[in-house]
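note to self — DONT lose this again. spent like an hour looking for the file last time. sequence + predicted structure for the chain T wanted, 405 res
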Amino acid sequence: MISRSRAGGQICRVLLLLVVALLGGLISAPVANAHGEQTQEAFLRASTVLIYDVKFDKTKVKVGEDLTITGVVRIMDSWPDHTIKEPKTGFLSIVAPGPKFLVRERWLNGQFTPQSVNIHKGETFPFKMVVTARTEGHWHVHPSFAIEGTGTLVGRGEWIDVEPGTLSNDVTLASGEVVNASTYGFTRVAAWHLIAVGLAVFWLIFWLRRPIIARLARVESGETQLITPLDRKVAGGLIVVVLAVLVAGNIYANTSAGVDPMPLQIDRITPVPAAEVAPLVESKITKAEYNKSTDSLDFTLHVKNTSASPVKLSQLQIAEVTFVPVGKPETGMVEGLTITGNEVAPGQEADLKVSVNGAVMREHNLLPLKEPQVRLTGLMFFTDAAGHRQVSEIDEVTSPIFPGK
């Protein structure tokens, strides 16, 4: 049997070591500057939801000033429903380091969608969001689309500088009263928090009035008679107090409102997806492999031009990263794509040799060589001489990545 003093000494040493380790970690931890979306598996980011053509109408705003974000959301046909349940509900929003912006408007294919929406595989929705800056600083902002049961997928991000300004967040209630939504009801919320904290502090003080180390030592020694009749009475009394506070709060909320209370409203919209454009090409990947010697992802793309104009592959998007040929950088795109034989005449068929820089893919955690689904999934963008564009999905089922040499 371990003595009380010895057990207490051991516990004290353990607690001291934990405190020192925690403080050391806080002091030495570097400031995080990575992108959290890159911690998600490549197959999840590449074969569920892709957000492309993302544009921010400005990168510098003042507090209270609006910023418009546009783009296109595609629910992939290659959705891995053998491992993730099929998508049914989605929600358009933004990802930022905290509540730095207010989302004023959400539009999917020209339809106002303030709440979550019904979706299906293979659908494409042009989107627009109007957000208002609320906190001064330098913030990285992504458009995002959350899928129930899967998580949140993001599009290309942009650094936004928010300068000092004045935020107006006034809304009109059903009673006709105009209130500031940023501060409305703060007193009531603070009061409820104080009540909850007061009950919690009382409960903690009641149990901490006796030495914790001594009680732990008694447990170590095998003694289990630690709950006294007073403990049971206080616990029962606290349960009664909590229930009474909840009932009183409900009565107060229902009687203190100026108008009859109304439940939160839910209107789940089914937006109309964008219409499919006339196809320019028929395409299929016949082989894909990672080449260790050149550190590149190489694949052969068979293309049949069904249009009346020469067609070429202009860019490739995997997850939130858009690859373009070297020497042709655009805003938010990454140079890392090499294409051989990249022009197909009208009515002709050709095999294009496509290579994606492996180092760039690893940098964005997009090379799924050690994941449970080692496949190539994404979007290919074809253009003709007149500027028409076709977005074609890479079918992951027919294009597994084979380990190269």
